[in-house]
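Rotation project, supervised by the postdoc (A.L.). Task for the rotation student: set up a whole-complex structure prediction and record inputs and outputs verbatim in this book. Inputs entered:
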Amino acid sequence: MKLLVVITRVEDPEIKIKIQADGSSIHTDGMKYVVCPFAEIAVEEALRVRDANDGEVVVACIGPADATHQIRTALAMGVDRGIHIVGDGSVSPNVKAAALEKICAEEKPDMILLGKQSVDDDLGQLGILLAEKLGMSQATFASKEVSLEGEEEKKKQAALVVSDGRVEVIREVDGGIETLSTSLPCVVTTELRLNIPRYASLPGIMKAKKKPIATHPLADLAGGETNGINILGLEAPPSRAAGVKVPDVAALVDKLRNEAKVI
Amino acid sequence: MSNVLIIVEHTEGTPKKASLAGITFGQQLVAKNGGELHLAVIGHNITGVAEAVKCYGATKIHVVDNECFENYLAESYTTAALATAEASGAKFIAAGTTSTSKDFLPRVAARWGASMASDVLEVIDANKFKRPMWAGNVVATIELTSDNKVATARATEFDAPTTGGDSEICAVECSVDLESLKTKFVSFKAIKSERPDATAADVVVSGGRGLKEAQNYKLIEDLADKLGGGVGATRAICDAGWVPNDLQIGQTGKVVAPNLYFAIGISGAIQHLAGMKGSKTIVAINKDEEAPIFSVSDYGLVADLFEAVPELLGKL
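Outputs recorded:
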């Protein structure tokens, strides 16, 4: 089976985001970029599903020229080949979905995996838009019930089990766990609790250098599709003033009772 | 200005709290831009839900009541939502942010040729909204330029809707052949708790790595029970398997805004702060006086939690 994983190149979540004085964008000087942590989980799951079913994993990334680093990271984890859709600046999910629709028409994947959201725009729309455009079913927030410290994870077993052209997906939803069964091809978006992504091995990194990456200009694939969402400006969230330190539990209880009046 | 349609989700026959926040979002949109507010309720045997939201000044409540909508599926609910949009003459469909609205509203947007604003924090006008990016470290002002528009509204940023008026309830005929769908609902397993859910509770008590081991989470539960509150946890202790993942508060978990939030043994990673900064009063108990959590706390107590929490239990 063929699996397509859509990854994003994001600012390292460990680095504090700073906004330019005019609010037009964030500071990018000295910024480090990584594969979105949710997308890494999607890559890991795709590799496990491939290993359980035979086939190929292809990674696609929409981003500027140096997004090749993030594609190479996925190739080093074990992905077979890459597709780089080269585009700069803020690209809306509608435009990304239009470009990926073309890629999917060409590649005909059996399963498309993405992170449940990208940790830069935090929109969480791309996989679902793509599913609807392609007329595919979707299973978002794919997770598993068992602990990540359990046996299943140690054996690197795929949580997504494919049989008879269908896949059963455990979804993490408000108030509980839902199980869906869907026919292939389908779109799956991944939650944190699905797996622990592997690190690239040294041989993996060496092999990745020789794996092919096809490039397409974004405008060629998504020409005509309008952004639909414009970012007009960025600002820092309202900051909370730090409060007071209380010396002991008695003082805390007194403040909560008589000042904040919350207990 | 054309009409606004808010999808009202429900659980056990009552509207979800997040959906009431969604109605408030709709009231604000209509107040700023004109047009009528309409509500939609989708499901099976849901007359009670429609009755419960009659008092919020909507012109009509469009009810899709059919056995095929007993269980939620993105594919079928997209069809139902667009049927209610047609009936209401709406050009804007929105809902409070839940795992359900996050799942099917992008699908509605794609089928409807709309652009979508996810997790709106504030309504500026009919096209412009504020929403969080980079785990809430940035607030962006965005503009939707499509003719049809879709949004989810973050429940903690919108108060309960104002009451007034009596809405007309209208049935909308819509059904889907479940056999023809690619997806089949298999099961739903509710994670039952005696405690209120953290997103709906007045008081939330959360614990982190400072608890040292899983069994010490009982201190968090004891304090929550004493205050009639809900419990929460940091991503670190969920990942470690000390507590179920659905207790996670933060950017990758739940966003809560109770009246009173206790952060116990929590250092205050950015990702956790993104999930609780909106709380009215924040109390932090941590033995590290440099912990970032103190910079967002109203009351900080630098203390060993294993001494402070039992003492607190005794004094409440």
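Student's summary: The two ends of chain A are 58 Å apart (CA to CA).
Supervisor addendum: The helical segments of chain A are 37-53, 68-77, 93-107, 126-134, 151-154, 202-208, 218-222, 249-259.
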